[in-house]
């Protein structure tokens, strides 16, 4: 395995503490077991693709026949290189697809990769995870390795896998091996490939950790062992909470720059020249995706049940929730400055996915922005070639404008800029609100 340097903010501290991590080193050639990946979404499908070249047989299991059809036809949101890998794996049979849970019984390794969202009250929604784990436990047999990758609250692996397996009479660490290894997949970002991204593994026993690490090492050059599934679970929550706090801070710095007449991108890049003690993020219209807006609430929910308040995290998540409202407010302000009543004003939102280059609408700030503008009576539309049709939280269906003209709109909100797509039409709009802070090809654009 390849050792990967720590990333600590205090210069030199990483060298002092590097020996606190245990790097996994395979002592024998990698096995060629059969693997079943449970859940074929944004994590499960890349996981299956990464395993198929080093595993005798990989089966992707998903309860959605529609999802399986989309995978078979290549209608999935993957980088081009991974799409080619997927096509070859399906053609050769090294990756098979199934919606029959009985495939779990024959597997040597089961990897659980199902979504763990939050509900409208920011409470963990473990319906999919509970169902998946119940199915895995019901088909479990002696000799299996079961690895949970879905981000969740501390204790989930033990509660949903270790204890139910023991109730079935399977001794964890002897009969079956169970571990938690949080996923670290960055959809749409070709700079962060699985093979070069280290993974953490926490086993229910030392033997569990070793067996699980053998599997995980097929997807990455660096695997580190921690003392327990609980330590690995909190590791993933800490990673995403750090990112959430950092993004909330970046947005506040951007607001400060607006008052002071400075460019937040310039300031952030300049601060980033310091080789220690700083890790910058860029501001934006809000935070979306399946991780940052959701995962911190798993810890907040769990600590709340224990009576512990964590004000910094709580405030960061409030700030993130409020950010799309700031975009709505700026739209109204810019229209008012031009003497345009926002009620009935024609506004275009360019790009609605939560992230450039992906078709993922989960938790996208565009949804509350569109909904907020509609509530104010704005005649709002969207343009996103990756998501031509979307559904707002209240069920409203919106069909996108396939070829907008800038002069047809009172204002354009630049929300997400997909690579390789033409946004030159926005220059013809008299008012452009750049919520990305990076759309500087329009001289008259304004930022939040």
Please specify the SSE layout and strand pairing:
Blueprint: H1 13-17, E1 22-23, E2 34-38, H2 44-51, E3 57-61, H3 65-72, H4 80-92, E4 95-98, H5 103-106, E5 109-112, H6 127-139, E6 145-148, H7 156-167, E7 177-180, E8 199-203, H8 206-216, E9 223-226, H9 229-260, H10 264-271, H11 295-305, H12 311-337, E10 346-350, H13 366-375, E11 379-383, E12 389-391, E13 397-399, E14 411-414, E15 432-434, E16 446-447
Parallel strand pairs: 2-3, 2-5, 3-4, 5-6, 6-7, 8-9, 10-11, 10-14, 14-15, 15-16
Antiparallel strand pairs: 1-9, 7-8, 12-13
Helix pairs in contact: 6-7, 9-11, 9-12, 12-13
Description:
- With 448 residues, the protein is an alpha/beta fold.
- It has 2 domains: 20-226, 3-Layer(aba) Sandwich (Rossmann fold); 322-447, Rossmann fold, CATH 3.40.50.
- 36% of the residues lie in helices and 14% in strands.
- It contains 13 helices and 16 strands.
- The chain has helices at 13-17, 44-51, 65-72, 80-92, 103-106, 127-139, 156-167, 206-216, 229-260, 264-271, 295-305, 311-337, 366-375, and strands at 22-23, 34-38, 57-61, 95-98, 109-112, 145-148, 177-180, 199-203, 223-226, 346-350, 379-383, 389-391, 397-399, 411-414, 432-434, 446-447.
- A 9-stranded mixed β-sheet has the order 1-9-8-7-6-5-2-3-4, sandwiched between helices. Strands 11-10-14-15-16 form a 5-stranded parallel β-sheet, with helices on one face. It has a two-stranded antiparallel ribbon with strand order 12-13.
- GO terms for molecular function: NAD binding; oxidoreductase activity, acting on the CH-CH group of donors, NAD or NADP as acceptor; oxidoreductase activity, acting on the CH-OH group of donors, NAD or NADP as acceptor.
- One of its GO terms (biological process) is polysaccharide biosynthetic process.
- Residues 348-441 form the UDP-glucose/GDP-mannose dehydrogenase C-terminal domain.
- This is Nucleotide sugar dehydrogenase.
- Keywords: NAD, Oxidoreductase.
């Amino acid at each position: 395995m390849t050792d990967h340097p720590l990333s600590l903010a205090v210069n030199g501290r990483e060298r002092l503490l590097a020996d606190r991590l245990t790097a996994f080193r395979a002592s024998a050639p990698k096995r060629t077991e059969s693997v079943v990946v449970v859940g074929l979404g944004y994590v499960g499908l890349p996981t299956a693709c990464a395993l198929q070249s080093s595993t005798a047989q990989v089966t992707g299991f998903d309860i959605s026949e529609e999802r399986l059809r989309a995978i078979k036809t290549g209608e999935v949101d993957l980088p081009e290189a991974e799409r080619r890998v997927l096509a070859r794996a399906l053609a050769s049979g090294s990756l098979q697809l199934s919606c029959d849970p009985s495939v779990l019984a024959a597997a040597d390794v089961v990897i659980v990769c199902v979504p763990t969202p939050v509900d409208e009250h920011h409470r963990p929604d473990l319906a999919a995870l509970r169902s998946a784990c119940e199915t895995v436990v019901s088909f479990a047999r002696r000799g299996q390795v079961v690895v949970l990758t879905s981000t969740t609250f501390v204790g989930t692996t033990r509660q949903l896998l270790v204890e139910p397996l023991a109730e079935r009479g399977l001794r964890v660490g002897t009969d079956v091996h169970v571990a938690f290894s949080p996923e670290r997949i960055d959809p749409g970002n070709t700079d962060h490939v699985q093979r070069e991204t280290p993974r953490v593994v926490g086993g229910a026993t030392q033997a569990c950790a070793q067996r699980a690490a053998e599997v995980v090492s097929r997807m990455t050059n660096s695997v580190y062992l921690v003392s327990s599934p609980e330590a690995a679970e909190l590791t993933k929550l800490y990673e995403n909470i750090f990112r959430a706090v950092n993004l909330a801070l970046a947005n506040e710095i951007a607001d400060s720059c607006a008052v002071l007449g400075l460019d937040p991108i310039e300031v952030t890049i300049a601060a980033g020249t310091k080789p220690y003690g700083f890790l910058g993020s860029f501001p934006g219209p809000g935070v979306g995706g399946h991780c940052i807006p959701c995962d911190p609430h798993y810890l907040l929910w769990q600590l709340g049940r224990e009576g512990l308040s964590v004000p910094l995290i709580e405030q960061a998540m409030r700030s993130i929730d409020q950010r799309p409202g700031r975009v709505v407010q700026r739209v109204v302000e810019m229209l008012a400055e031009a003497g345009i009543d926002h009620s009935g004003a024609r506004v275009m939102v360019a790009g609605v996915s939560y992230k450039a280059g992906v078709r993922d609408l989960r938790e996208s700030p565009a949804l509350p922005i569109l909904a907020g503008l509609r509530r104010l009576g704005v005649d709002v539309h969207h343009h996103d070639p990756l998501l031509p049709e979307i559904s707002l939280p209240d069920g409203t269906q919106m069909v996108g404008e396939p070829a907008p003209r800038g002069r047809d709109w009172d204002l354009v909100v630049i929300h997400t800029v997909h690579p390789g797509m033409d946004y030159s039409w926005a220059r013809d709009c008299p008012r452009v609100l750049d919520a990305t802070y990076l759309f500087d090809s329009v001289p008259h654009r304004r930022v939040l």
